Amino acid sequence: MMSFPKMAKIRQHFHVESLENIPAAIAEQFAAVKADEKIKPGMEIAITVGSRGINNIPLIVKSVAEEIKKRGATPFIIPAMGSHGGATAEGQIEVLEGLGVTEESTGCEIRSSMEVDVIGETSEGVPVYIDQHANKADGIIVMGRIKPHTDFKNKIESGILKMASIGMGKHKQALALHTYGIKGISEMMPEVGKVAIANSNTLFGVGIVENAHEETAIIEAIEPDEIEKRERELLKQAFKLMPSLPVEDMDILVVDEIGKNYSGTGMDTNIIGRIRVLGVEEPKKPSVKYVIASNLSEASHGNALGIGLADLTTQRLYEKIDLKTMNENVVTSTFLARAAIPIVLDNDQEALKAALRATWGVAAEEARIVRIPNTLHIGELYVSEVIFNELKDQKNIEVLEDLQEMKFDENGYFLPM
User: Fold this and answer.
1) What is the pLDDT of residues 183-241, one digit of tens each?
2) Residue 118: CB partners within 8 Å, gap ≥ 6?
3) Whole-angstrom distance, CA of residue 87 vs CA of residue 171
4) What does the alpha-carbon distance between residue 279 and residue 87 come to, in Å, rounded to a whole number?
5) Do residues 129 and 164 lie in contact, with contact meaning Cβ atoms separated by under 8 Å?
6) Quick one: pLDDT at residue 1?
């Protein structure tokens, strides 16, 4: 019988600063962009909310809505998430619910539709679409988290312009841009966002940046004509604040749960060091020989996009896949490899055995294994003995559980972290 290396549970400590009072920060930002002059009594104001896991998002949306109400206007939410949620209005409401964004938690109505209007085109002739509910509104607040993208590297990546383009433009805009492959989202997407903002009733943007503990670090309201410039600057800050795994070289990385609520790609490519997009160079670091995807989050509603970034998976994850929902998302993106289903094993134990067997020339007890709950939360993790001995004396590492045998349940799956 194959033996497994012992594992220790550790916590990485990142030097971080976070916002302590989100409602107060948002009130301050509304004042900074002179919201009193932009929002008048009786207006209906759309707030964009995407499909990504953003910490405190129900509170952030509620606080933005409260500021709108204070000025006598009516806020409402539009799901701004391209083809996510199976490219249906109902599916997109479900995605929001999975993030805790409901009419009850935010105090404002959700108006979900896949219907769009054409409001212009880019210099390259790409049509620019906007959600009909947003287009009918008296004002729009384009809100999004500014962070490194999982598909490409550029001066503008994930953020407000992406929400204004692929977000507000729904499935039609996603299709229009993804038709051009990686160029569509890395080079053409920002211009679509700029046209969408210029040709709509966008009042201002709200950029959110998180720290390495996935806490809200920055919330900033930005005037429409300043969005591109300021987003570039905030992206640089987001890169500096981003967390990473404590080692760069691994034989096996076990990801307990993948899902759209953790990353648009199911697993954050910046964390695992894999992109798998035609024409995009793979990162040199971190380097992982085999990735095991163990489970799929409930909030993903069967969309296992990103499973193709793994080498092995489990029967329980495989059984949760809604092929229609996943395929709709991946075919829209055109990054087909990301939905390719890897080898399916009975459970974690069998997946780990297969990966260890394929780790040529490395004895099982010497294998460099890291286990994380998901790619969004990597503060607490398990590491195998070899890695533990490298890390245990570092100042930013706290030992939570000393080395011990791996523990599995009666079905051969890891016990929860």
Assistant:
1) 988 999 999 999 999 999 999 999 999 998 889 999 999 999 999 999 999 999 998 99
2) 127, 128, 129
3) 6
4) 26
5) no
6) 63
